[in-house]
C-alpha cells in the first residue's frame, strides 16, 4: 500500500456518506482504518478528519435541501394538520407560516393537562386513551358512552 496524492476528501466523504449517516461521531483513526481496508489506500488521521468534516457538510446540505423542498411543497397548509405540544410559540409560527393548516394538540399533552385539572385515576385514563385512539366515528361514539 502507498499514499495516493490525488485522493480528495470530497471523494472519500461521498464514498462513505452512508456510514457517516449512521455514525456521525466516527473517529478519524477508525475512518483511516476503514479506508485502508476497503480501498487499500493509506490515509493520514488529518485527512480522515477533513473527510469527516466534508461528510458532515454534505449531510447538512442534503438535509437542508430536503427540508426546504418539503417546506415549499406545503403551500399555505391547506389539507394539512400540524400536531404539537401546547407551546404558544409553535401555534403562532404555524398560524403565520401555514395559515390554512389545522393545528392540533398532542394527546399526551392534553391528557397531562386534563390530569392536572383533577381528572385522574385508572378509569379516567383508560377512557381518555380509548377515545383518543378511536380512528372512526363509530369507535369514538362507542368510547364516549
Topology:
Elements: H1 9-15, H2 17-22, H3 28-39, H4 45-73, E1 81-84, H5 88-97, E2 102-105, H6 107-116, H7 122-132, H8 137-144
Parallel strand pairs: 1-2
Helix pairs in contact: 1-4, 3-4, 7-8
List its salient traits:
two-stranded parallel ribbon; 145 residues; mainly alpha; 64% helix; single chain; elongated; 2 domains
Mind explaining what this structure looks like?
Helix content is 64%, strand content 6%. With 145 residues, it is mainly alpha-helical. Helix 1 crosses helix 4, helix 3 packs across helix 4 and helix 7 runs antiparallel to helix 8.
Quick structural overview:
The chain is mainly alpha-helical. It contains eight helices and two strands, in the order H-H-H-H-E-H-E-H-H-H.
Amino acid at each position: 500500500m502507498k499514499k495516493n496524492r490525488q485522493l480528495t476528501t470530497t471523494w472519500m466523504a461521498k464514498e462513505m456518506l452512508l456510514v457517516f449517516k449512521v455514525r456521525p461521531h466516527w473517529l478519524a483513526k477508525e475512518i483511516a482504518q476503514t479506508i485502508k481496508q476497503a480501498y487499500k489506500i493509506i490515509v493520514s488521521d488529518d485527512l480522515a478528519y477533513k473527510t469527516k468534516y466534508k461528510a458532515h457538510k454534505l449531510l447538512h446540505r442534503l438535509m437542508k435541501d430536503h427540508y426546504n423542498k418539503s417546506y415549499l411543497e406545503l403551500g399555505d397548509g391547506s389539507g394539512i394538520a400540524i400536531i404539537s405540544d401546547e407551546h404558544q410559540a409553535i401555534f403562532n409560527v404555524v398560524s403565520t407560516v401555514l395559515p390554512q393548516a389545522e393545528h392540533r394538540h398532542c394527546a399526551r399533552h392534553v391528557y397531562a393537562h386534563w390530569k392536572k385539572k383533577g381528572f385522574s385515576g385508572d378509569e379516567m385514563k383508560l377512557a381518555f386513551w380509548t377515545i383518543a385512539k378511536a380512528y372512526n366515528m363509530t369507535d369514538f361514539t362507542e368510547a364516549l358512552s
